[in-house]
Design brief:
single chain, 122 residues, alpha+beta, Immunoglobulin-like, 4-stranded antiparallel sheet, 3-stranded antiparallel sheet, 1 helix, 9 strands
């Protein structure tokens, strides 16, 4: 009897989590990249409260634009896992590996814009 009850509770927990993950977030948010520090690649997670064109811009410590990652039009939702987050391979726009150091990444999604920092360590 307890086993059946446990299975029912587990099923309810799964259904609740699936429903919760399908709801769009209330706020658009740029989250911390992972891993951080990284070498040579990293993922940049974010959430969209509403659909938008998404672009990630990466700058070096001097404020120079290193890379533009044009993600395209995305639906409202959570882009948190490696499968959904934005991938950066640590290369500049020309395909060359960038130097060690502090980098800034900016998410632009519609009218939303936010910046965070990340560290590349070789």
């Amino acid at each position: 009897m307890a086993l059946v009850e446990d299975d029912v509770l587990k099923a309810l927990e799964v259904d609740t989590r699936e429903t919760m993950t399908q709801l769009p977030p209330k706020h658009t948010t740029l989250l911390q990249n992972y891993p951080n520090p990284f070498n040579p690649e990293t993922w940049i997670p974010f959430q969209l409260a509403k659909e938008a064109e998404v672009v990630i811009q990466i700058y070096n410590i001097k404020g120079e634009l290193v890379r533009v990652l044009s993600i395209g039009h995305k639906s409202a939702g959570c882009y948190l896992s490696k499968e959904k987050a934005v991938f950066w391979n640590g290369k500049n726009q020309s395909g060359e590996a960038v130097a060690n150091g502090l980098y800034f990444y900016t998410l632009k999604a519609g009218e939303f814009q936010a910046t965070r920092k990340m560290i590349l360590v070789k």
